[in-house]
Design brief:
CATH architecture: 3-Layer(aba) Sandwich
Pathway: Cofactor biosynthesis; NAD(+) biosynthesis; deamido-NAD(+) from nicotinate D-ribonucleotide: step 1/1
Catalytic activity: nicotinate beta-D-ribonucleotide + ATP + H(+) = deamido-NAD(+) + diphosphate
Number of domains: 1
Bound molecules: adenosine-5'-triphosphate
Family: Belongs to the NadD family.
Function: Catalyzes the reversible adenylation of nicotinate mononucleotide (NaMN) to nicotinic acid adenine dinucleotide (NaAD).
Protein name: Probable nicotinate-nucleotide adenylyltransferase
CATH superfamily: HUPs
Largest sheet: 6 strands, parallel
Length: 241
């Protein structure tokens, strides 16, 4: 797919705005998601956060909560939690509802197209945030090489997932290495840099939370892993019972 309005190369320019993009199934959203966005929004001093709930992800089985429920959970989880503006971008859910497969490369391309002409796009840094599990999968994503021309990519360490490049496909490892730099580089250009945050170890996963809720109901552990308002909502809707 042609990227009409993305800048031609990641040469240093005057970045006016940086946007943190964080996608996921959010089935359910958990404290790890909130903590991750808070951490990176502050660390990278972004101006805005876009949360992207996935449609029906092609690499996972079906989702338990509906799209509406996942959006509502995101609203409840992030309400008053960030010091910068955030929005919930529903484009992947809308594409899935129209039975159009949803891919991150299309989402980022759409965002750049929405911003219009090349000049304004050159001034906007898009920073895609993923966890270490998705770092491992990245080379299976549709047109993954193109993502390096649309956004920076930052990876959060996660227990159980190595950040070593030598176990990953060589083309991906080479491109990653070439793009890898200092955190300050993310503010110098609008796309094309990568950065690994190795200092995180939040042992939380939506799969584990779902399993525990299904098997044991709300325990002290699950209630500590899900924002309070989300827990109340889960209960009222009977999701994961
Ligand atoms: P599941 O267990 O079903 O895979 P999840 O906990 O990974 O779910 P998702 O909604 O799939 O939740 O994740 C959204 C994004 O957040 C992904 O990029 C994922 O890697 C990242 N992420 C989720 N939890 C963590 C965590 N504890 N540490 C680091 N990254 C995480």
């Amino acid at each position: 797919m042609g990227v009409k309005s993305a800048p031609a190369n990641p040469a240093a320019i005057n970045i006016q705005r940086s946007v943190l993009v964080f996608g996921g199934s959010f089935d359910p959203v958990h404290q790890g998601h909130v903590a991750l966005v808070q951490h990176f929004a502050k660390l990278l001093k972004v101006d805005e956060v876009r949360l992207i709930p996935a449609g029906q992800p092609w690499q996972k089985g079906g989702l338990k909560a509906t799209a509406e429920q996942r959006i509502k959970m995101l609203e409840l989880a992030f309400d008053e939690q960030l010091s910068v503006p955030y929005s919930i971008d529903q484009q992947e859910i809308e594409r899935a509802a129209a039975q159009i497969p949803s891919y991150t490369v299309d989402t980022l391309t759409n965002m750049r197209s929405q911003w219009g002409n090349a000049q304004s796009n050159e001034e906007i840094a898009l920073i895609l945030l993923i966890g270490a599990d998705q770092f491992h999968n990245f080379a299976t994503w549709k047109n993954w090489q193109q993502i390096f021309k649309l956004a920076h990519i930052v990876v959060a360490a996660r227990p159980g997932y190595s950040l070593q490049l030598d176990t990953l496909p060589s083309e991906f490892a080479a491109l990653w290495q070439q793009a890898n730099g200092a955190i300050e580089d993310l503010k110098q250009c609008s796309f094309g840099k990568t950065w690994l945050e190795t200092d995180l170890a939040w042992d939380i996963s939506a799969t584990r939370i779902r399993d525990e809720l299904q098997q044991q109901g709300q325990t002290r552990e699950t209630t500590s892993l899900i924002p309070r308002k989300v827990l109340d909502y889960l209960q009222s809707q009977g999701i994961y019972n």
